[in-house]
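Records of this kind hold a single protein each, on a pair of labelled lines. Below, a sample record shows both lines together.
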Amino acid sequence: MLSFTPKKRLSVLVHILGWFMLCIVLLLLSPLSWRMGEIQLPVQFWWKQVFLVLLLISIFYTNASLIVPKILLPGKNYLYLLIVILGAVFFYGLIIYFEQFTLYSEKMHEVFNPGKPFDPHRKRWLPGDVFQMLLFLVSIGLSTSLALVQKWQKDETLRRELDRQRINTELSYLKAQINPHFFFNTLNNIYALTNLDVKKAQEALLKLSRMMRYVLYENQKNETLLSKEVKFIEDYIELMKMRMTEKVKLTIEIENPKEDLVIAPMLLLPFLENCFKHGVSSQKESEIKIKLEVMGDTVFFETRNHIFPVNADSPEAHENGIGLTNTQRRLSLIYPEKHRLKFGKDEAKQEYWVNLTINLA
């Protein structure tokens, strides 16, 4: 069965209204300007008007659906121009043949010149022929424009679909990179904790299992509730606190968000990983500040941490920072023009800071 979407129904309606207006101009407005009260037009005149409308409709759709796609769009411009010229000659010849077949000229002469003999060899009325050729050119011009616009719309739709598929593929690739990045970092933390406190390591494994459920289920979606993301962050911080000494001062200010706000999953995790990766020292005192605030539909996220060199023997020393790089890329893909990310080093305080603002509307 044929199905018509609202867009197709609107297109069909526009076509119908367009041809309806043309019929009014050809069949009514033009004859009404001829003192219709004094002149009784012959039936041949109305036959010709109907024939002319049907001929223009045929030319319009033949050019739009066949000639332009097959000849003009592939670049055969000269062949298309030749077809238009031959079409104009054929159009003019059909009108002359129709007039001769229906005795149009003779009947119109009897109406406008009563009592005068009809000369079959007289010259044709030039303004009438010019008007009919203009109708042909208008039909060709409008149908060509329609075909070109439809081609442009089709190409634009295809381009957007390809962009959407590319972005989805790239996002899936980026998230696939983040998952093992987070997982191996956390396992490395638990491994270090097993040498210090087995009970804490067991608690850490329980927290990690809960967090991995979030990674496996929520991270497969394009978005999740901000409240779930915040809970995930809190679990991660608690997991990191288990391996810290009293030399590390944590300042955490996390606001509970509204339930209806949604965000891309695991978007903030790499910034937290960066804090605990570079901001913790076993020998020196350090401070990590994490702040998350929600105002309306806008999320403000901030981190600050001291900068300490990573142990050369640690697996983290060989990582290339894919977490932060991927997060920047994800932000540009998911929230274009709706986020602001700033980060840098405060050399005086030997601190690294991150400020992220996202409009989730």
About this structure: Residues 126-194 form the longest helix (69 residues). Residues 6-124 form one domain. The chain is about 60% helix and 15% strand. Residues 155 and 161 are 10 Å apart (CA to CA).
